[in-house]
Each structure stands twice: as C-alpha cells, then as structure tokens.
Amino acid sequence: MAITAEREVRVRERLRGVDANLLLALHALLEERNLTHAGERMTMSQPAMSGALARLRKLFDDELLVRSGRGFELTPLAEQLRPVVADAVEAAEALLGNERDFDADTSTRRFAVSMSEYAMTVLAEPLTRAFTAHAPGCTIDLDPLDVRRDQVETQLMRRDLVVAPLGFEFPGRTQPVFTDELVCVVARGHPRLRDGGLSRDDLIEMPHAVAEFAAAGDRRRPLEVEVEQKGMGGRNVLVRVTSLLTLPFAVAGTDMCAFVPSRLAHRCLDVLDLVVAETPIDTVRITEAAHWHPRREKDPAVVWLRHLLHDVAVELEDELG
Fold this sequence. Notes:
12 helices; alpha/beta; seven-stranded mixed β-sheet; D-Maltodextrin-Binding Protein, domain 2; Arc Repressor Mutant, subunit A; 3 domains
C-alpha cells in the first residue's frame, strides 16, 4: 500500500527532525527487522532499543515494525523509509569521515563472514592464517550460511561478506573465490565398479545420495542440468541431505553413489574407505563466490578483506593446479 503524497511530505519533514542517534537506531531496525539484532549492532540493550522504537513510532505515527509469526515485518511506510534512511546514514558517515582509510596493522575491527559449509572447509584455515598475519589486532567471526532463501538478503546486510555458490542469483555484489569440480564417490570395492568406472546404466540403476541447497530456491544446479542432458533425469535418488559435508558419510559402506566437490572427496577417501569413480558425466565445475551488500562496496575495511580473500583464493587455485 503506497502512502499519499501529503503523508510523504510529512514523513520527510519528520525525518529531518530525527537526531543522529535515533537515525542510526532507525536504520538498524529497518535493516535488521529485529530488536535484539538491531541492539547488538548499535551496542544498545534491548530495553533501550525498545525505547528508541517507541519514540520512532510516535514520531512517524506508524508501527514501523509489526510482528509476523516469530519475527517482524516492515510496514509499508517503513519499506518506503528504508532506502531514504540508508542514503541519509551513508551521507552522514561520509561527512563524518567513517570512510577513512583502513589500517590493518593498527585496527581492532571485528569482521563478520558467513560461508556455506563446504566453503568453510576450504577457506577457514587459510583465511584465518592470512588474517592473523596481516591484521593482528582484528578479529573475524565465521558462521554458517543461513540456507533459507528468504534470509540471504538479511544475512548480506548483517555480514561484511557472505561466501556461497555462484549462479543462484543472490542479491548484492559478487567476486568469485575458488572453483572445484564434482566427482563421483562410491564405497571401495563396490560391485558395479569396472576398471575404476561406472557406466551410464550403472548410474541410472544404482541409488544416489544428493544434497539439496535450499537457498537455491527452484533454480536447478549444474549437476542436475548435466544429468538430464545425459538422459538420466530419472535417476534413483534414495537419500537427500541438507549439507554437502554429509554426503560422503551417507555413501560410506552402502551401494549408493554421490557427486561431491573433489576437495571434499579427497579428504574423505581414506577415512571413509571410498574411491572416486570415473563416469560418463562431463566435468561439472562449481564456483564459490563472495557476496556483499552494495552499501559495503566502498567500505575500506571490507575492500581490504575482499583483497585478502582474493589472495587466499589464488593460493588455493595454485595448490589445486
């Protein structure tokens, strides 16, 4: 529901009357849509943030945030306010010098990065090592990507970077980080293996374990496209899991097969008594990419972090080569 032109004028007049601290609280509330998260972002207690919301509601004569199930939704007025407030805060930050250079040697900034579970296994160790060497006073919080599609944009707003598969039209800006290719793993000594390979008929008849990436929504993944092109769209999917990391464990000791990233596969072969089987499926490559909110495009600290991640990615690709 759009607000009237007359009300829009009143809203802009009231917005000009909001003091700086209340403007920042409004910005946090509109982006986080959650009192607790907004309070953490502002380093304010929940009662203090509730008080700020009460003042804002009175000022704008609107609820701004309304409860919906276990969370909150923005009112139509709040949705219209969100880009205006974001622009105002960004202009204020630039005016006050918050876009100053980032000095990794002396900074004590705390970074926040979310990653897919698979990206975490590849990047966590080399990124942490590089981070410690180049920014000794900074800290970094690494947490798993929220796989719910409707939470991706919210996570982008709360994190400096989000590392997730490329090709699923996630919002924000992107930077490819590393590539991998899918390989087929089966239990060592599988009766269908012949000269280390599986035929097209084998892949059609034997049971498969697959991982479903909820954040992809209805968009098909590269492996699904390739399987259909090879006439195996009706393969026997026996087990579905929610994480790539669990696929090798699901296959171990069974007559199933699964396609997993090669880096993950080779870490599990000896431990789980698995082997990589040759198949008629053409090589399917996947790319994990860094995603970030457009408002962080020019943030010197985030720009530095993206460069660091790029350097780590170059080393990873060199190792794979």
